[in-house]
Each structure stands twice: as C-alpha cells, then as structure tokens.
Amino acid sequence: MRLSTLPVLLSMCVALPAVAESFVALGGGTAAVANAGKIELRDRSNELIGLWKGPSEPVGLARSADGSIIATATRDGNVYTVRSRELTITSTGLSITGLLYADDLLWVLDGYTGDLIRGDGETFEQVARLGPDSALMRHGSGSIYVAARGSAELVRLDSTTGVILARVPIPAQVADMELDGEAIYLALPQRGEILVLGAEDLEKREQFRLGSAPVDLARGSRGTALTAGLIWVADPVLGAVIGEERSQSMSAAVSRGFLRGVLGIGTARADVRKLPGRPSRVVRSGAGVVAQELTTGVLWRIEGNRVVELGRAAAGAFAADEASDLVAWLDLTSSELQWSRTP
Amino acid sequence: MRLPVLLIAGAMLAAELIGQDGSRGFEKRSSERLLAQARTASDRFAAQLNLGDLSFADGRPSEARRWWQRARETASSERTRLYREGQMSAWARLTAWEAVAAGLLGEHEAMRRMFGLALELLPGDPEIWSRYASAELSAGEARQAVRIARIALAHAAGADSDRHLLDRATIEFTLARALRSAGAEDEARRTLESLDALLHGASSISLQNRVARAEAFSVSGTARGELEAWTTLAVRTRTLLAESYERAGEVAAARTAAQRALEIQSDHPPALALIARLRGSSTDWREAFASDPLDRSLHRSYMQALSDGLPPIDPQGNSTADLVIGALEAMEREEWSVARRAIDQLGSSQTTSEPLRALEAEWLVRQGRMEEAEAVASSIRTRAVRDSIPPRRLRDDNTHLIRADGSLLSEGDLTAIERLLRDPATTISASAVLDSRSYEVTATLMEPVLLDGNTTAAAAITSEGRALRFPAPVTFQGDWTAAAPLILALRVLAVDPAGLMIEAEGVRHP
Predict the structure, then answer these.
(1) Would you call A254 and B454 a contact, using CB atoms and an 8 Å cutoff?
(2) Which of A123, A124, A243, B368 is within CB 3.0–4.6 Å of A117 for a Cys-Cys bond?
C-alpha cells in the first residue's frame, strides 16, 4: 500500500521545554528522522536513501507537502534544510521551539519571545512577535494559528501574507490544539475540558467536559449524518484515549441523538479505550489512533475494539499515516526506525 | 503538592543565597526539625533539598550533593506512587521538583526533560516556570533563565493574594539575578527597583503588617512561611540593588539602599559588609563582623577590601569577631602561622566546627594546598537527623475483594472500589479484573436534560449518595428526568481526585 501523499501533520511544534529529542515525519512514501546529530531518509523497506548532518538536539521536524523538503532546527537558532538532497544550515538568532511547512514556506517559532519568522530555509523574514510562551503552531484553511499562552490569546495569521487576522482570549493553560477545517479544538487539562472555536472567526462554539485531564488531541474521521466525526484525546489520569463525537454538547447532540434513537442505535457516548498505561500523546492513524505513554515510550494502536502494542519509542518520536494503518517510530532501545508493517 | 513556603523560597532562590541573611543556623534547625518530623514525602523532600542548599552555602559541596541525591530519590519514589494512582497533577508538580534536584546534581538534560514533562500536564503554571528559570540560572544558563523567567512572569500576572505576590516577587528576583548574570546590569537594576516597590507597596500591606506584628526576625526555632519569605526577598532585593548601585559608581545610592536593607534586618551581613566597603571605616567592619563573624560572604568581602588597600583593623581582643578578623588579616599578609594560631584559638571556643572548618579550608586554599582543603571541607559532619522511610507492608492480591461480574453494587461496594483504586498496594491483576467487570447500580441521573421528548442527557449519576461521573455527557433513550431511580449498567473506568468515573453500558427500569 502506498503511503498517502496528502499533507500529513507536518509540524512538531512542541511545548516549552521540549520533551521529545528525536522526531519522525512521514511523507512522499518515506520516513524522515532527526536524531542524534543526523537527518535520515528511509524508504518503507527501511533502506537508507539519504543521510545528512543534523543537530544533536533537534527541536522539531517538518516536511513540505510533497515530502521533498525536510527541515529541522536547534534551540540556539540554527535551521537545517534538506532540499534537492542538499543541506543548508541557517542561523536565525532565535530560540527555536517549533517549525512547520505551510504553502511551501517554512514557519519558525521562538516560543520564548513569540517571534515568528518564515522563509525558504535560507532566508527568513520576521512575521510577528506574539509574546512569551507561544506554542502549538498549526496550519489549516490558509491560516497559521498560534497559542500565545503568556498573553492568554489565540492568534490567527494569514499564511500567505503573514498578517494577523484575529486574536482572541483563551485560557493560558492550553495543552494542545487541533484543527479540522471548520473548528479549532483546545485541550484544557487542568479544567478537564475541550474548548471549541470557529476556525474562521475564532468565536467560541462550545466548551465541554471530556475525561479527567485531556492533554493531547487528534482529529479522527470526518463526520456523517449519524456520526459527527471524532476528536480523540489522550487522558493520562484516566489512562485512556477517548473518542468523542465532535460538537457533542448537550444541545448540539440533539439532532444526532434523535436520529440515533429513531434508528434504534442506542445511547450516544464517548468511546473510551482504556490502556495499560497513561497515554499523553495521540495521533490519527487511518481509521484509528496511535497513542504513547511518554514516561515508558510504549506505543499502542487503537482501532475499533482492538488495542495493539506496537513497541517502545523515544518520547514523541513516531508518526502515523492518516490514510492507512502504517506507523513508523524510533525504537527506544536501539534508536533504529521501526515500521508497523513491511511492504 | 505545596511545600512549606520558606523552603520553597529557599530552594527557588539559588544555593548561594541561603545563609547570607544571617539566619543560616535558624534555617538549618528548621530543616532538621522538618526532616525529623516528616510524615509525608513532600516534607522529607523539602527538608533534604534545603539541607543540601545549606551545606553548599557552608562550603561543603560533597555533603550538599548527598542531600540533593537523597532528595531526588525521595521525589522519584513518591512520583512512582502518584503516577500509579493517577494523581497526575501532583505527579507533574513533584516532577518539577525532582528536576530542581537533578539540576543541582549537574544532570541538566534530565532536568530539562522533567520540566518538559511537568509542563505537558500543567501548561502555563507560573510556579513550575519559575522553578525552571531558577534551575537554568543555577546551571549557568543566564540568558535562558531570563527568557524563562519572563514566561513565568507572564503567567503570574495579577497578584491578588499574599501568596501570589510572593510568587511573583520570587520570579522577579530570579529575573533580576539572571539579568545580572547575563550582563544586563541596567535592566537588572530596574527590575530590582520595581521589585522593591512591589514588596513595599500597597499590594503587600497585609504582609508588611504581619511582619511588623511578628516577633523580631531572629532565631525563633520555627519557620513562619510567608513572613520569612517576604523578609528574605525584601532584604536581598535591597542588598542586590545596593551592590548594583555600587558597581555603577553611585555610591550614595548604594549606601542608601544598604541602609534600607538594614531597616528590614539590622544584622544582615551582606548589607553590613556593603556599608563597610562603601564607608571604609573600621567601625562599620566591626559592626559587620559582630553581626555574624563566621559568615563566609563577609570574610570574602573583607579579604577583597584588604586586597584593595583597606587599612587593617588589627584587633587586639579575643572575641570571636576579633579572632576571625585577625585570622583573615594574617592570611592577607601571608603570615600563615599567625593565622593558624587565631583559627586554633577559635576552635577552642567554638561549639560548632562547621564555619571553622570553612576558615581552615580557606587557609589551606590560600597556600595552594587544594587537596587538603577539600578533605577538610568533606570531613565536616552535620547534626541533621537521618531520614528513614517506614517499611511498607505489602498486601495480598485484592482480587477476592472485587464483586462478581453483574453484581448490583451497594454504597459499601462503591466505597471499596474507590479505596481499591486509590490503594498503591493494589496489584495490577486486581486492577485488570476490575476493569473487565460490569456492574449495576441503582441511581438517578444528576441534572438530567430532556432533549427532544424521548432523549435524556446527563453528565453524571447519583448512587447511594455518591456522584459517579461519565467522561462526557451521555444521552439515553427515553425520558429519565422524573428523578425516579433507574438501574444503570456500568464499568468503572478510573478514580481521580473528584471521585469515581464510570462508563455507561445500559439503563433500565427497576
């Protein structure tokens, strides 16, 4: 099965300070790995098809939409870009905490000051300064979204012009952010809630309790008339991942619940998948999700009623194809790339 | 998990700070008492961390490392328990504390990883950010400490209680020290001036009044938390400000700031030493030595002043202060035997040998006898009580306590389940059995909402007087708003600080 060429989650905009020290990103039928002073490119058979010098302590890994350009960075401001198999290293002077590709431009964030720049990897221009503790940079619907936690704001910028389009107040204690095109979901672990904003106007749509401490989000499948589509959360207090129908507030569930009742489907409820551990990372994987317990590195793939332990990965060093069940991760012990299945 | 404030302040204000305010003996006795009486891991950890800091301030790095290592082991053990019980917020806070201990032991990468883990669960927590800033400063990363302290300040905005004010003040103090270490002296001074205004302004009136009403801040034998923290911060802020003015050549401003520090604590050795340096009078130096003749920072200041050309006091008496001054002046003149005699005389009259050992180590260092100096420093023993963790009694597997599948649970059963989930001795197999079983309870829906005449939604149920929560609101077919009891089939998911969380599997009439 070919890997999807759709733009997978390309940003690894981690919170400050970084828990992850190694990164994996899928794209273009290959896996890119930033780890221990190297940037590697491997195919599905795990053959090494590219090797470049990389940072000893990378802070993120990004790939362009077609996977042809790979970028990683260091905390002291160096951006490593591999384009047409050539490596360039550019010093930005920032304390980089995150990066992503959007519209063929590399966006780089200094989460300490909120300085946001973008460029082609060799030259950059300043876009904005968003304030201390800026994190969770995301791209969708022609916009860049950043949680400026120090000022308790969500900022939306035009990904073409770089102009700030909107700033709205949000709780400062947001742990993760996920987009699904129409809405933005914010995980608030200290409140045990999910906050939903409109992706265009950033207006509050709803806020609902989900689990005990939702710390990470992943969007699931798109909705139908009967299922609103899922948003998944990792909840380490519950020791579970929870798949929640989107917009599952009391009022918004009326039509769906009613229809389900008419057709005799039964109660609508959150899909709770307890795990033998405390997951704090979750990403979409085909029709299911992959979750990780950061303290042990254990990876699980959950689809339907099946929970499969894949192995142990370095913290955060895994990636999943959104269109299939393929997962790649950096083994915790051997530091070698592993795949969930071979071609 | 909230550690005693004084010890928080002590751990957050780097090791070099502790003991420079003339209260090292008091702090050490408080820490020893806390350790001896510790009933919780957090108390034990706080005492061990503080004893390490005090040892370091006394020039005993090997002993300091031993205490920090013990603190780290205490935190690690407690974190395992908290993680197992799902107390993730407490786990995250203690992870941040263990990160402090790791940093003190020089394990900086581990320190950063642990702060990262803590902030994953508690993003935007100003206390964790503040601790992280202080740890980076201790690790020598002043610029990084500045960046992180600014984040901490952003999250600490709006001090609306004494506790919050102290938190904010501690962060600002850390920022000032980091700025100074990073070479941004002007900005450091402005930060200290702003902090001084905060500590003595309208927002801190209640704290100031409490300090004024309290007994004089001297050896009292008990830690009084916020008052001590305010005093420590206030006097150190003014002292650092005075030193900053001194470096900028603003002698009059430096003298004024040092005097104002003494208004808070009249025997604060660094302030007295600064006054003595600025005025250069033997009277000032005598006064500084009289306040704490064995304070090492005072010794360093006096030696530096002598080296810069200060005329020696040349004391003739046999008081502790006279003997110390005599020893230091003899060392400056490289009259080693004269200095040795003075140190030996001190030894015959001192009840504690620790500061004396430090003086002896200084005597050896100045002669270039480095190995002997380290041996002297590491031979110092404290009177701290050794910690002991009472042995845990392991229990048998509790599987037999779990009700059979399909049982109707009573209030006692629910209590037993909650206790089982919270018990750290509960085996994994017992937890797995509980996970796999379905039960029924007689319950009513809490605050049910009728959606459309034939669908009811609720976020929790009440059973036997106990609230059982769903992870998310659940909709049920039918109208269940009548508050009549129903039979709910459920699985127990977990327990968190708010109680049991369940998953609904079905509902029926009794």
Answers:
(1) no
(2) A124
Query: What is the rounded CA–CA span in Å between residue A127 and residue B169?
Result: 33
Measured CA distances, A333 to A224, A296, A312, A313 (Å): 42, 11, 8, 8
Q: How far is CA B103 from CA A298, A304, B49, B72, B123, in A?
A: 27, 44, 12, 10, 21
> Tokens 């003339």 belong to which residue?
B22
Q: Give SS3 for B309.
A: coil
Count of C-beta atoms within a 10 Å radius of residue A303: 15
pLDDT in tens, B203-238: 777 777 666 665 433 333 333 466 777 888 899 999
Q: Dihedral sign, CA of B470, B475, B476, B478?
A: positive
Query: In a 10 Å sphere around its CB, with 0-12 CB exposed, 13-18 middle and 19+ buried, how is residue B252 labelled?
Result: exposed
Give A23 or B59, the one with higher predicted confidence. A23
pLDDT per residue as tens digits for the range B126-178: 999 999 999 999 899 999 999 999 999 999 976 566 677 888 888 999 999 99
Max Cα separation, chain B? Answer: 99
Contact B139, B108 (CB under 8 A): yes
Q: Is B452 on the interface with A (CB under 8 A)?
A: yes
Lowest-confidence range among A86-100, B128-142, B257-271, B351-365? B351-365
* Cα four-point dihedral sign B478, B481, B482, B488: positive
Q: What are the chain A neighbours of B85 within 8 Å (beta carbons)? A: none
For the packed helices B5-12 and B162-181, what is the interaxial angle rounded to 10 degrees?
10
User: Dihedral angle at the C-alpha atoms of B7, B10, B14, B17, nearest 10 degrees?
Assistant: -160
What mean pLDDT is predicted for residues A126-150? Answer: 95
Beta carbons of B496 and A212 less than 8 Å apart: yes
Comparing CB atoms, the residue among A189, A209, A261 nearest residue B477 is A261
CA angle B23, B273, B133 (to 5 degrees): 60
Average pLDDT of the residues in B489-506: 83
CB A29 within 8 A of CB A2: yes
> Cα dist. A149→A111, A112, A186, B396 in Å?
10, 10, 12, 47
Chain A residues within an 8 Å CB radius of B506: 267
Determine the average pLDDT of the residues in B326-339. 91
Distance, in Å, from the CA atom of A222 to the CA atom of B247, rounded to the nearest integer, reads: 65
Whether the CB of A172 is below 8 Å from some CB of chain B: the reply is yes
Cα–Cα dist A233/B313, whole Å:
71
Three-state SS letters, B405-430:
CCCECCHHHHHHHHHHHHCCCCCHHH
Phi (first) and psi of residue A65, to 5 degrees: -55, -40
Residues in contact with B2: Cβ distance below 8 Å, sequence separation at least 6, in sequence order: none
**Helix B108-121 × helix B126-138 angle, to 10°:** 170
Residue where the block lists tokens 């699904």: A180
Helix axes B251-264, B226-247, angle to 10 degrees: 170
CA–CA gap between residue A263 and residue B455 (Å, rounded)? 13
- Give me B424's structure tokens: 């750290």
Q: What is chain A's Cα-based Rg?
A: 19
What is the rounded distance in angstroms from the CA atom of residue B290 to the CA atom of residue A55?
56
Which among B116, B496, B503 is the nearest to A272, CB-wise?
A: B503
